[in-house]
Amino acid sequence: MKSSAQNRIRSISYAKYGYFFILPFFIVYFIFQLYPLFNTFRLSLYGNGNNTGAWVGLENFEILLFGEGNIAVRAQHQAIIKAFGNTLILWFGNFIPQICLSLLLAVWFTDLNLKIKGKTFFKVVMYLPNIVTAASVAALFLMLFSRTEYGPINSLLMGTFGFDEPVNFIRDKWISRGVVMFIQTWMWFGNTMIMLMAAIMGISPSLFEAADIDGANSRQVFTKVTLPLLRPMVVYTMITSMIGGLQMWDIPYLYKEGTNFNEDIKTIAVYIYNHFHSLNPNYGYSAAASVLLFFVTSILGSFCFAMNRDKDAAKRKKQIREAKKRMKQQNKATFGGF
Amino acid sequence: MKNLKKTLALLAALAMSATALYGCGDEKESSSSSTANNSSNSDSASKDDSKADDSSKEDNGDAAEGDKLTILCWNANDSQPMVDLFCEKTGHDPSEIEIKNFDCQGGEAAELYDQYLSEADNDVDIIFLEADWALKYINDDSATMALSEIGIDEGDFGDIYPYVLEIGKSTTDGTLKGISWQAAAGGFCYREDLAKEYLGVETPEQMQEKVKDWDAFLATAEELMTASGDKKVALSATLGGVWQVYAGSRDTAWVGSDNKLVVDDYCKDYAEFASKLWNNGYVTKVAQWANEWKPLGNSGNVLGFFVSTWGFGDTILAEAAGGEGGETFGKWKCVVGPQEFYWGGTWLAPSTRCNNKELAKEFIEFFTINEEGATAYAEKQGEYMSNSKVMEAIIDKGEYKGAPVLGGQNHFAVLKGVAKNIDMAGKITPYDAKIKEQFTNAVQGYAEGTYSSVDDAMVQFQTKVAEALPDQLNWD
Fold first, then answer.
1. Is-contact B379 B161, C-beta < 8 A?
2. Closest-approach residue (CA) in chain A for B476
3. Which of A239, B133, B208, B329 could form a disulfide with B321 if both were Cys (CB 3.0 to 4.6 A apart)?
4. Residue of B14, B285, B429 to mutate, interface with A, max A Cβ within 10 Å
5. Which structural domain range is residue B204 located in?
6. Does B456 touch chain A (CB under 8 A)?
7. Is the domain A67-311 a CATH 2.60.120.1440 member?
8. What DSSP designation does B287 have?
9. Alpha helical stretches, state H, B230-288
């Protein structure tokens, strides 16, 4: 028989204090994240411009996706298609060089046979661009890549390399895209490299040793040992980079002359921003575009996730499930359903 | 040990709740601290002290906020000297006026104003408005009220330049709701030495003859290009600057009476003209306000800048000349140029929440109608006032010698005719800023060769405006 004191002690639960401690986060989250999220969905069903507040149902989506009607409707459709295209181009253009570069550097920096001096120094230097705010980076690159003969890069090209005309780094379609891709790669490869390095260092050294003893060359080690074991981290990087890439806003928004936007680097986030952050706002289109972006991100995200599924594990699971089923059926047959 | 843990937990909880509740602070307190910030921005240390005293008084709760004249603005560059002078001359105590400074770029102010105004308890009497977006508030009857309601009729503003009144009028019903103390008339400023070398121009009068209209401007640009040979001197610094002026020659509004965008010959003419300037090097490819813009002044590759009354100091021209003692400082001259234009300016409008009508009236009148006040402010700040009578008296008196960068020429005497001739009647719409932004972008694209023909560029212009203003305008 327990004493009453013992009973009391058992019933004391400290769990509720934990909730008090996480309460501030949830309050802030509900006010500043969840509410705006739902409000975006709500606003996407309401009108634009002078009709803000009028219920229009799914009209905004219809206009953005199909755009059949007058010039204002067609313009909206064209703008969002172009913005989605730009976003994908800019993302691919920065993700592919970024992952290749980071993978290469991560493998080099973790390779025990290569004795690179000053590893920490390089790691810090490569991570540094990520610490600088995008606003400063954009200002820096605008200054460097100024389109006139007075800009540093252009005066170098014209002086040393004998270019006749200054290169239009800011408004030319592919050159400006190239610069934005370069900035994004430069800003983020250090970050990706650190993550990949952490993952590589998590791989048991005995595997590398075994490969060494078996006489594998470094290419084989990379493709047969490092890469397969690195897959979860690569997929993680891909998902985070994709979400970040689809929401790419800062550099494309800031990389312009005065108020003259370059249509070829306007991303979907810039479209959203320009339509709500304006003297003549169009909340409906802005919110509808955000919702579309949300769905596209979710679909692409789950696609990446599905790709990452460990196929062997899934197969084993399936086999076990089938075996169980078979057993059950067998039992059923043997014992007549009991 | 146990106590230490408890204390730590308590501290952590306090810190967390303090950060969570930070935003809920007393509005009065935060506004008074921002006033204190303003005054610390101003130069005079003695003013600082008096302001600091004020805010401490406020904290004691002596003065209810509603009794003060509250002014909304986005920086204290104008408002602080205005309040200082107003109090000095009229004997009002500085504590009667509160400057609510949002301390941001003019373009961002509208959004912060909206936030502030969304709180019905927030006091506001006078709102500072920038020319670009003034109409957003002037057309909004729940934000601003007619000047006649605080006791100033349109007839009282007889001496004010007409364009200044025009911009302060609501485009929906034409009531006068805002007024500016400034007139931002502009002219063409050029380098005397280069003009003499390449164009043989000796006096500003001869120069004006060379740029008296757009045809002459183009011919002179060509002459200058040929005369300067390899140096390839451009007549004007930027295409943006030329547009600022050319925009003044539009004689219809951008939006017609049927609420449709007007794309007419004027647009095509400008596109062709801009393309000519751009591709022949008559302007440089530098953008307005880019880092390379002002250094062009001393580069020897540019003859002139288009500058408005506020740009003769460090904002534009003095810095372009290299500052005091700079290479070309004092070697610049100013002429009217091809077209009368204005560029920028700040308007004052009484808010519908104005509960200090007497003081608000006195304040607005002091800088506009009140000749003594306007004269004092012009002399103190070197500002070109919107009161034509005041300005003419100052010019006639001859004490003011003009901006030092002009080396003895009085630009006020040049610009006094400009301000009078700017005609904005019936040409203003609330969408001008958006439309002009898309127009210049399309024209720039045409000049660069992105669009093969003017018509393509105009289609692009129309499409982008349609995208930006789908429901605000009517579309086919």
1. no
2. A70
3. B329
4. B285
5. 186-341+414-468
6. no
7. no
8. P
9. 239-246, 265-279
